[in-house]
Amino acid sequence: MKSAYELAMERLQKNAPSASFTDEQKAKLGEIDSQFEAKIAGKKIFLSQEIEKAIVAGQVDEVEKLQRQLTTEIRRLQDDCESKKEKLRDSFKPGP
Predict the structure, then answer these.
(1) 0.90 cut: is pTM over it?
(2) What is the chain's Cα-based Rg?
(3) Phi-psi region of 58 (alpha: psi -120 to 50; beta: other; left: phi over 0)
(4) Are 88 and 28 spatial neighbours (Cβ–Cβ below 8 Å)?
(5) What Cα–Cα distance (Å) separates residue 11 from each residue in 4, 39, 56?
(6) 55 phi/psi in degrees, rounded to 5
(7) Integer Cα distance of 94 and 77 in angstroms
(8) Strands (E), 1-96
């Protein structure tokens, strides 16, 4: 007898089969991840330095503003990354 989980997974596979990618496709997706990880790291480094300067200067409002900016920038870059990967995944699908 199958568990509820196994039955649900079978239904999910029937309705939306998981995509399998070639090594080349996986490499392209990984390249996008790497590019955006580098962009995020750059933003973190730059804004962390700016936050540190604001802390040393005692500019509490500026610290909060920069922290919000950092959060927003990271979220935007993550969304851009996912969007770019989704477009790439769509290009992998065979035409009609």
Answers:
(1) no
(2) 21
(3) left
(4) yes
(5) 11, 39, 57
(6) -65, -45
(7) 28
(8) none
Task: Using DSSP, state whether 34 is helix, strand or coil.
Answer: helix
CA atoms within 13 A of residue 18's CA, in its CB half-sphere: 6
To which residue do tokens 């993550």 refer? 78
pLDDT tens for residues 53-79? Answer: 999 999 999 999 999 999 999 999 999
Q: At what angle do helices 60-92 and 23-56 cross, to 10 degrees?
A: 170
Place of tokens 């490499």: 27
Q: Which single residue is written with the structure tokens 């065979």?
A: 94
Residue boundaries of the structural domains of the chain:
23-87
d(CA 43, CA 78): 12
Tens of pLDDT, residues 21-41: 899 999 999 999 999 999 999
Is the distance from CB of 66 to CB of 46 less than 8 angstroms? Answer: no
Are the CB atoms for 58 and 92 separated by under 8 Å?
A: no
